[in-house]
Amino acid sequence: MTHTPAITATGLFTPEQTITNAELVDAFNAYAELFNEEHAAAIAAGEIEAKEPSSEAFIVKASGIEQRHVIDKTGILDPRVMHPLLRQRSDDEPSLMAEMGVDAATKALAAAGRSADDVDLVICAASNMERAYPAIAVEIQNLLGISGFAFDMNVACSSATFGIQAAADMVRAGSVRAALVVNPEICSAHLEWRDRDCHFIFGDVATATLIESTDTATGAHFEILSTRCATAFSNNIRNNNGFLRRSRPDGMKDRRDMQFMQNGRKVFKEVVPMVSDHIADHIAANGVGADELKRLWLHQANKSMNDFIGRKVLGRTPEPDEQPNILQDYANTSSAGSIIAFSKYSDDLQEGDHGLICSFGAGYSVGSVLLRRHA
Asked: How far apart are CA 166 and CA 172, in angstroms?
């Protein structure tokens, strides 16, 4: 017997601290001034380049971002630190990612009127895990008191949609009754805040999506009509940090490639058509026309990217409510971005309305989830 999977609830954890573009620019420019003063001789000799200042206008034009939520702003805004300052936790304490994930998952369960006893699976799907093992997902499972099993998944910014596909497939097959796909993203910790080209991109957040069979759904829900995932290898978005760094010459030095790196222009040029074609092919394969899509919940990385994809998919400029953006308030939160947009802008859809969640990023990877609303 097969079952029809559905999204029955979502949960969102938002850190209390925010950093505005003005705050970020002040901190970066102070850092740039210090750097240029300390390296004045080398800069004059042409050995290294001076750091250029950032600006609020540059950030908004490049990304559409106006602020971001972070776990810690004090270290990020200190021009002599320029990264989060997080407390060292003992092994007996919940990890930070698990703590964030539990908050979002608890809210999702409450929204659906479910308890830990109703869930058989937890997937922690995120860009960077704070440790390799034991799995953060198993820790979240334990903290919530869920039986069954759990595992981590990393497909960078596409982790949420890939996780939803895995969970939906297991619900459909009957191997689990319900699953939580949790996306705790501490992006501020793997961003290089000293790089003018990307210092504004990321924020921190956690989301959770509850997936169960339509047979057990008790309220409004979104039937998962179809999921589709695709990958194509690229080095244009990369992070080279890992446990092997100490085994290589200079592996422990403060190397730029140990943080988030991307070739933004190439990413835009290559990912946008990949995503546009992916969505068009996905909905066509399911007999859904572009004019039947009431909403696109896209990955929240860059406003220009989303505007281009929306125009390509719909064949016209999307109305604001057809393609809601949240990155102006949250910045890029990697895998969580499309789920934040879905969580905040889905309740108003009516019976039978179609919508599509799509995330995309490093890999390259792209995942889409085609939904139909049931009120």
From this structure: 10
CB atoms within 10 A of CB 84: 19
pLDDT tens string 303-361: 999 999 999 999 999 998 999 999 999 999 999 999 999 999 999 999 999 999 999 99
Backbone angles phi, psi at 9, to 5 degrees: -170, 160
Rg from Cα positions in the chain: 21
> What's the rounded Cα separation, in Å, for the pair 201 and 268?
14
pTM recorded for the entire structure: 0.95
Phi then psi for residue 202, to 5 deg, are -105, 160
Using DSSP, state whether 264 is helix, strand or coil: helix
CA distance 171 to 178: 6
Cis peptide before 364 (omega within 30 of 0): yes
Among all residues, which ones are annotated catalytic? 157
* Residue 285 bridge partners (DSSP): none
Neighbours of 279 (CB within 10 A): 26
